[in-house]
Amino acid sequence: MTIGPTDHKIDRLVHLLVRNATVVVPGPKIASEIGVSRSTVWEWIEKLRELGVAIKGHPRHGYQLEKLPDVLVPSLVRAELPNAEIGHKVIHYFRTESTNRVALELGAQAAPHGTVIVAEEQTAGRGRLGRCWYSEKSSGIYASIVLRPPMPPAAAPILTLLAGVAAHDAVRSATGLSGDIRWPNDLLVNGKKVCGILTEMKAEVDRLHMIVLGIGINVNHTSMPDELREIATSLALEGGRHYSRLQILAELLRDVERYYHMHLNEGNAAIVREWSAASSYADGKRVQLKAGGCEASGITEGLDASGALKIRRDDGRQELLVAGEITELR
Ligand code: BT5
Description:
The chain has helices at residues 8-19, 27-34, 38-50, 74-80, 99-108, 157-175, 235-239, 245-266, 268-278, and strands at 55-58, 62-65, 89-93, 115-119, 140-147, 180-182, 186-189, 192-203, 208-218, 283-291, 294-303, 309-313, 318-321, 325-328. The protein starts with 7 loop residues before the first helix and ends with a strand. Strands 3-4-5-9-8-7-6 form a seven-stranded mixed sheet, sandwiched between helices. The model has no long low-confidence stretch (mean pLDDT 95). By secondary structure, it is α+β, with helices and mostly antiparallel strands. Bound molecules: biotinyl-5-AMP (BT5). Biotinyl-5-AMP binds at residues 98-100, 122, 125-129, 131-134, 142-144, 185, 193, 196-198, 214-216, 218, 228, 232.
Protein backbone atom coordinates (compact mmCIF):
# COMPACT_ATOMS: atom_id res chain seq x y z
CA MET A 1 0.00 0.00 0.00
CA THR A 2 1.33 3.42 -0.88
CA ILE A 3 2.83 5.81 1.63
CA GLY A 4 1.05 8.99 0.63
CA PRO A 5 -2.49 10.24 0.91
CA THR A 6 -5.14 7.99 -0.52
CA ASP A 7 -5.85 8.61 -4.18
CA HIS A 8 -9.21 10.39 -4.28
CA LYS A 9 -10.22 7.88 -6.96
CA ILE A 10 -10.06 5.05 -4.40
CA ASP A 11 -12.29 7.19 -2.25
CA ARG A 12 -14.68 7.51 -5.21
CA LEU A 13 -14.58 3.75 -5.74
CA VAL A 14 -15.64 3.14 -2.13
CA HIS A 15 -18.31 5.79 -2.43
CA LEU A 16 -19.64 4.28 -5.65
CA LEU A 17 -19.87 0.82 -4.06
CA VAL A 18 -21.65 2.28 -1.04
CA ARG A 19 -24.11 4.19 -3.24
CA ASN A 20 -24.88 0.98 -5.13
CA ALA A 21 -24.71 -1.33 -2.15
CA THR A 22 -27.69 -3.42 -3.19
CA VAL A 23 -26.49 -4.26 -6.71
CA VAL A 24 -23.51 -5.78 -8.49
CA VAL A 25 -21.59 -2.98 -10.20
CA PRO A 26 -19.81 -4.09 -13.39
CA GLY A 27 -16.04 -3.54 -13.44
CA PRO A 28 -16.11 -1.54 -16.70
CA LYS A 29 -18.77 0.80 -15.31
CA ILE A 30 -16.64 1.46 -12.22
CA ALA A 31 -13.57 1.97 -14.40
CA SER A 32 -15.25 4.51 -16.64
CA GLU A 33 -17.01 6.36 -13.81
CA ILE A 34 -13.84 6.97 -11.87
CA GLY A 35 -11.54 7.24 -14.87
CA VAL A 36 -9.06 4.37 -14.35
CA SER A 37 -8.37 1.09 -16.13
CA ARG A 38 -10.22 -2.12 -15.24
CA SER A 39 -7.02 -3.66 -13.95
CA THR A 40 -6.55 -0.70 -11.58
CA VAL A 41 -10.09 -1.22 -10.30
CA TRP A 42 -9.25 -4.86 -9.63
CA GLU A 43 -5.99 -3.92 -7.89
CA TRP A 44 -7.80 -1.41 -5.65
CA ILE A 45 -10.57 -3.86 -4.83
CA GLU A 46 -7.85 -6.27 -3.66
CA LYS A 47 -6.28 -3.54 -1.51
CA LEU A 48 -9.62 -2.73 0.06
CA ARG A 49 -10.19 -6.43 0.77
CA GLU A 50 -6.83 -6.53 2.54
CA LEU A 51 -8.17 -3.82 4.83
CA GLY A 52 -11.18 -5.93 5.67
CA VAL A 53 -13.68 -4.29 3.31
CA ALA A 54 -16.03 -7.14 2.39
CA ILE A 55 -16.52 -7.02 -1.39
CA LYS A 56 -18.02 -9.91 -3.37
CA GLY A 57 -17.43 -10.62 -7.02
CA HIS A 58 -14.62 -10.50 -9.54
CA PRO A 59 -13.54 -8.59 -12.65
CA ARG A 60 -15.76 -10.42 -15.11
CA HIS A 61 -19.05 -10.14 -13.23
CA GLY A 62 -18.64 -6.99 -11.23
CA TYR A 63 -18.42 -6.11 -7.55
CA GLN A 64 -20.80 -5.68 -4.65
CA LEU A 65 -20.31 -4.71 -1.03
CA GLU A 66 -21.28 -7.42 1.44
CA LYS A 67 -21.71 -4.90 4.23
CA LEU A 68 -21.06 -1.22 4.73
CA PRO A 69 -17.31 -0.77 4.96
CA ASP A 70 -15.58 0.46 8.09
CA VAL A 71 -12.84 2.32 6.31
CA LEU A 72 -12.28 5.96 7.15
CA VAL A 73 -12.04 7.40 3.63
CA PRO A 74 -12.98 11.09 3.30
CA SER A 75 -16.27 10.65 1.43
CA LEU A 76 -17.68 8.38 4.15
CA VAL A 77 -16.44 10.56 7.02
CA ARG A 78 -17.67 13.75 5.35
CA ALA A 79 -21.10 12.22 4.74
CA GLU A 80 -21.46 11.86 8.52
CA LEU A 81 -20.53 15.50 9.12
CA PRO A 82 -22.56 17.89 7.01
CA ASN A 83 -21.63 21.54 7.65
CA ALA A 84 -18.82 20.55 9.99
CA GLU A 85 -16.00 22.94 10.73
CA ILE A 86 -13.81 20.22 12.20
CA GLY A 87 -13.66 17.59 9.48
CA HIS A 88 -14.70 19.85 6.58
CA LYS A 89 -11.50 18.56 5.01
CA VAL A 90 -10.36 14.98 5.65
CA ILE A 91 -7.09 13.56 4.36
CA HIS A 92 -6.84 9.79 4.49
CA TYR A 93 -3.83 7.47 4.47
CA PHE A 94 -3.88 3.72 4.26
CA ARG A 95 -0.55 3.78 6.00
CA THR A 96 1.65 6.55 7.32
CA GLU A 97 4.31 7.00 9.98
CA SER A 98 2.26 9.26 12.21
CA THR A 99 -0.83 11.34 11.49
CA ASN A 100 0.53 14.00 13.87
CA ARG A 101 3.67 14.26 11.80
CA VAL A 102 1.63 14.68 8.62
CA ALA A 103 -0.66 17.22 10.29
CA LEU A 104 2.31 19.31 11.47
CA GLU A 105 3.75 19.27 7.95
CA LEU A 106 0.46 20.16 6.29
CA GLY A 107 -0.24 22.75 8.95
CA ALA A 108 3.09 24.40 8.12
CA GLN A 109 1.86 24.54 4.52
CA ALA A 110 -1.27 26.41 5.63
CA ALA A 111 -3.77 23.52 6.03
CA PRO A 112 -6.85 25.29 7.37
CA HIS A 113 -8.37 25.07 10.82
CA GLY A 114 -10.45 21.91 11.11
CA THR A 115 -8.41 19.78 8.69
CA VAL A 116 -8.36 16.16 9.85
CA ILE A 117 -5.74 13.56 8.95
CA VAL A 118 -6.71 9.91 9.43
CA ALA A 119 -4.85 6.67 8.81
CA GLU A 120 -5.80 3.02 8.79
CA GLU A 121 -2.36 2.18 10.13
CA GLN A 122 0.63 4.06 11.59
CA THR A 123 4.13 2.67 11.33
CA ALA A 124 5.60 5.09 13.89
CA GLY A 125 2.63 6.30 15.95
CA ARG A 126 3.83 8.74 18.59
CA GLY A 127 3.05 9.05 22.26
CA ARG A 128 4.36 11.79 24.53
CA LEU A 129 8.08 12.17 25.35
CA GLY A 130 9.20 10.08 22.40
CA ARG A 131 7.12 7.08 23.38
CA CYS A 132 5.38 4.88 20.79
CA TRP A 133 1.69 4.41 20.09
CA TYR A 134 0.78 0.89 18.99
CA SER A 135 -1.33 1.38 15.85
CA GLU A 136 -2.68 -1.90 14.55
CA LYS A 137 -4.02 -1.82 10.99
CA SER A 138 -7.75 -1.16 10.57
CA SER A 139 -8.47 -1.83 14.25
CA GLY A 140 -8.05 1.62 15.73
CA ILE A 141 -8.73 5.26 15.03
CA TYR A 142 -5.60 7.31 14.35
CA ALA A 143 -6.60 10.91 13.77
CA SER A 144 -4.97 14.33 13.99
CA ILE A 145 -6.89 17.58 13.95
CA VAL A 146 -5.34 20.88 12.89
CA LEU A 147 -6.64 23.75 15.02
CA ARG A 148 -5.79 27.43 14.81
CA PRO A 149 -7.22 28.75 18.07
CA PRO A 150 -7.01 32.40 19.04
CA MET A 151 -5.03 31.83 22.22
CA PRO A 152 -1.45 32.28 23.47
CA PRO A 153 0.82 29.20 23.48
CA ALA A 154 0.81 29.03 27.28
CA ALA A 155 -2.95 28.46 27.29
CA ALA A 156 -2.80 25.46 24.96
CA PRO A 157 -2.80 22.63 27.56
CA ILE A 158 -6.54 23.12 28.06
CA LEU A 159 -6.99 21.73 24.54
CA THR A 160 -5.63 18.35 25.65
CA LEU A 161 -8.31 18.27 28.33
CA LEU A 162 -10.88 19.34 25.75
CA ALA A 163 -9.89 16.42 23.52
CA GLY A 164 -10.10 14.05 26.49
CA VAL A 165 -13.65 15.10 27.29
CA ALA A 166 -14.61 14.81 23.61
CA ALA A 167 -13.14 11.29 23.39
CA HIS A 168 -14.90 10.34 26.62
CA ASP A 169 -18.28 11.51 25.29
CA ALA A 170 -17.77 10.02 21.83
CA VAL A 171 -16.95 6.60 23.24
CA ARG A 172 -19.93 6.70 25.55
CA SER A 173 -22.43 7.74 22.91
CA ALA A 174 -21.12 5.46 20.16
CA THR A 175 -20.60 2.35 22.31
CA GLY A 176 -22.43 2.81 25.60
CA LEU A 177 -19.16 2.13 27.46
CA SER A 178 -18.36 4.59 30.19
CA GLY A 179 -14.79 5.70 30.47
CA ASP A 180 -12.72 7.57 33.00
CA ILE A 181 -10.09 10.20 32.19
CA ARG A 182 -6.70 9.97 33.87
CA TRP A 183 -5.12 13.40 33.92
CA PRO A 184 -4.13 14.76 31.56
CA ASN A 185 -4.86 12.66 28.54
CA ASP A 186 -5.72 8.99 28.98
CA LEU A 187 -9.17 7.57 28.49
CA LEU A 188 -9.58 4.38 30.52
CA VAL A 189 -12.29 1.75 30.31
CA ASN A 190 -12.41 -0.65 33.25
CA GLY A 191 -9.11 0.83 34.44
CA LYS A 192 -7.18 0.21 31.21
CA LYS A 193 -6.18 2.70 28.55
CA VAL A 194 -8.23 2.73 25.34
CA CYS A 195 -7.32 6.18 24.08
CA GLY A 196 -4.33 8.50 24.21
CA ILE A 197 -3.98 12.11 23.15
CA LEU A 198 -0.86 13.85 21.92
CA THR A 199 -1.11 17.62 21.58
CA GLU A 200 1.66 19.26 19.60
CA MET A 201 2.01 22.85 18.50
CA LYS A 202 3.87 25.26 16.30
CA ALA A 203 4.37 28.59 17.98
CA GLU A 204 6.60 31.55 18.63
CA VAL A 205 7.06 32.68 22.21
CA ASP A 206 3.86 34.70 22.21
CA ARG A 207 2.08 33.59 19.05
CA LEU A 208 0.41 30.27 18.42
CA HIS A 209 0.43 29.20 14.77
CA MET A 210 -1.34 25.91 15.11
CA ILE A 211 -2.22 23.05 17.38
CA VAL A 212 -2.34 19.44 16.33
CA LEU A 213 -4.61 17.29 18.47
CA GLY A 214 -3.60 13.68 17.86
CA ILE A 215 -6.07 11.10 19.12
CA GLY A 216 -5.60 7.33 19.10
CA ILE A 217 -8.45 5.00 20.09
CA ASN A 218 -8.22 1.22 20.32
CA VAL A 219 -11.51 0.07 18.84
CA ASN A 220 -11.65 -3.45 17.37
CA HIS A 221 -8.40 -5.02 18.59
CA THR A 222 -9.15 -8.60 19.58
CA SER A 223 -6.04 -8.74 21.74
CA MET A 224 -3.30 -6.37 22.84
CA PRO A 225 0.44 -7.09 22.53
CA ASP A 226 1.98 -8.75 25.60
CA GLU A 227 3.79 -5.62 26.74
CA LEU A 228 0.55 -3.60 26.81
CA ARG A 229 -1.91 -6.23 27.99
CA GLU A 230 -1.76 -5.20 31.66
CA ILE A 231 -2.38 -1.52 31.00
CA ALA A 232 -4.25 -1.26 27.71
CA THR A 233 -7.43 -2.58 26.16
CA SER A 234 -9.81 -1.96 23.27
CA LEU A 235 -13.47 -1.05 23.12
CA ALA A 236 -14.22 -4.42 21.50
CA LEU A 237 -12.43 -6.31 24.27
CA GLU A 238 -14.40 -4.44 26.92
CA GLY A 239 -17.75 -4.32 25.15
CA GLY A 240 -17.61 -7.83 23.72
CA ARG A 241 -18.56 -6.70 20.22
CA HIS A 242 -17.24 -5.03 17.11
CA TYR A 243 -17.84 -1.27 16.74
CA SER A 244 -18.00 1.03 13.73
CA ARG A 245 -14.84 3.12 13.69
CA LEU A 246 -16.57 5.48 11.30
CA GLN A 247 -19.35 6.19 13.82
CA ILE A 248 -16.91 6.72 16.65
CA LEU A 249 -14.69 9.00 14.57
CA ALA A 250 -17.68 11.06 13.42
CA GLU A 251 -18.91 11.35 17.00
CA LEU A 252 -15.42 12.35 18.14
CA LEU A 253 -15.10 15.12 15.55
CA ARG A 254 -18.58 16.44 16.40
CA ASP A 255 -17.69 16.44 20.10
CA VAL A 256 -14.35 18.19 19.54
CA GLU A 257 -16.19 20.87 17.57
CA ARG A 258 -18.86 21.24 20.25
CA TYR A 259 -16.32 21.62 23.05
CA TYR A 260 -14.12 23.88 20.94
CA HIS A 261 -17.04 26.31 20.59
CA MET A 262 -17.91 25.92 24.24
CA HIS A 263 -14.36 26.96 25.03
CA LEU A 264 -14.48 29.95 22.67
CA ASN A 265 -17.73 31.12 24.26
CA GLU A 266 -17.26 30.28 27.91
CA GLY A 267 -13.49 29.95 28.33
CA ASN A 268 -11.48 27.45 30.35
CA ALA A 269 -14.04 27.19 33.13
CA ALA A 270 -16.41 25.21 30.90
CA ILE A 271 -13.76 22.63 29.98
CA VAL A 272 -12.51 22.38 33.57
CA ARG A 273 -16.11 21.76 34.67
CA GLU A 274 -16.80 19.11 32.00
CA TRP A 275 -13.46 17.40 32.55
CA SER A 276 -13.95 17.29 36.32
CA ALA A 277 -17.39 15.73 35.86
CA ALA A 278 -15.96 13.04 33.55
CA SER A 279 -12.89 12.08 35.60
CA SER A 280 -12.61 10.24 38.89
CA TYR A 281 -9.02 11.55 38.99
CA ALA A 282 -10.09 15.19 39.38
CA ASP A 283 -10.60 15.19 43.11
CA GLY A 284 -9.89 12.93 46.06
CA LYS A 285 -7.90 10.31 44.16
CA ARG A 286 -4.77 8.91 45.77
CA VAL A 287 -2.01 9.03 43.16
CA GLN A 288 1.67 8.69 42.49
CA LEU A 289 2.89 11.66 40.46
CA LYS A 290 5.88 11.97 38.18
CA ALA A 291 6.80 15.35 36.74
CA GLY A 292 10.07 16.99 35.81
CA GLY A 293 12.23 14.51 37.72
CA CYS A 294 10.07 14.74 40.85
CA GLU A 295 8.21 11.76 42.21
CA ALA A 296 5.76 11.90 45.09
CA SER A 297 2.44 10.58 46.27
CA GLY A 298 -0.62 12.50 47.36
CA ILE A 299 -4.28 13.19 46.82
CA THR A 300 -5.79 15.15 43.93
CA GLU A 301 -7.60 18.38 44.82
CA GLY A 302 -9.20 19.51 41.55
CA LEU A 303 -8.03 21.50 38.57
CA ASP A 304 -7.05 25.16 38.63
CA ALA A 305 -8.48 27.63 36.11
CA SER A 306 -5.89 26.71 33.48
CA GLY A 307 -6.51 22.97 33.74
CA ALA A 308 -3.42 22.22 35.85
CA LEU A 309 -3.96 19.48 38.44
CA LYS A 310 -3.65 20.33 42.14
CA ILE A 311 -2.21 17.57 44.33
CA ARG A 312 -1.80 17.65 48.10
CA ARG A 313 1.40 15.68 48.67
CA ASP A 314 1.77 13.39 51.64
CA ASP A 315 4.37 15.83 53.04
CA GLY A 316 1.66 18.52 53.08
CA ARG A 317 2.92 20.59 50.14
CA GLN A 318 0.62 21.41 47.27
CA GLU A 319 1.89 20.51 43.80
CA LEU A 320 0.43 22.10 40.66
CA LEU A 321 0.97 19.82 37.67
CA VAL A 322 0.94 21.41 34.23
CA ALA A 323 2.57 18.40 32.57
CA GLY A 324 3.63 14.97 33.73
CA GLU A 325 1.75 11.90 34.69
CA ILE A 326 -0.09 10.30 37.53
CA THR A 327 -1.03 6.75 38.40
CA GLU A 328 -3.63 5.61 40.86
CA LEU A 329 -2.39 4.28 44.21
CA ARG A 330 -4.68 1.79 45.85
C1 BT5 B 1 -0.29 9.03 24.49
O1 BT5 B 1 1.01 9.14 24.88
O2 BT5 B 1 -1.15 8.42 25.08
C2 BT5 B 1 -0.59 9.75 23.17
C3 BT5 B 1 -1.00 8.81 22.09
C4 BT5 B 1 -1.45 9.56 20.85
C5 BT5 B 1 -1.64 8.66 19.68
C6 BT5 B 1 -2.23 9.39 18.50
S1 BT5 B 1 -2.67 8.32 17.21
C7 BT5 B 1 -2.92 9.65 16.14
C8 BT5 B 1 -1.83 10.64 16.42
N1 BT5 B 1 -0.65 10.39 15.63
C9 BT5 B 1 0.39 10.03 16.40
O3 BT5 B 1 1.52 9.72 15.97
N2 BT5 B 1 0.02 10.03 17.70
C10 BT5 B 1 -1.34 10.45 17.86
P1 BT5 B 1 1.57 8.67 26.30
O4 BT5 B 1 0.74 9.27 27.38
O5 BT5 B 1 3.00 9.00 26.25
O6 BT5 B 1 1.34 7.12 26.32
C11 BT5 B 1 2.16 6.26 25.59
C12 BT5 B 1 2.22 4.96 26.36
O7 BT5 B 1 0.95 4.29 26.27
C13 BT5 B 1 3.22 3.96 25.77
O8 BT5 B 1 4.49 4.15 26.35
C14 BT5 B 1 2.60 2.61 26.16
O9 BT5 B 1 2.89 2.29 27.51
C15 BT5 B 1 1.12 2.90 26.08
N3 BT5 B 1 0.56 2.56 24.76
C16 BT5 B 1 1.18 2.48 23.55
N4 BT5 B 1 0.30 2.17 22.58
C17 BT5 B 1 -0.89 2.02 23.19
C18 BT5 B 1 -2.19 1.71 22.73
N5 BT5 B 1 -2.48 1.49 21.45
N6 BT5 B 1 -3.18 1.65 23.66
C19 BT5 B 1 -2.96 1.89 24.96
N7 BT5 B 1 -1.75 2.19 25.46
C20 BT5 B 1 -0.73 2.26 24.59
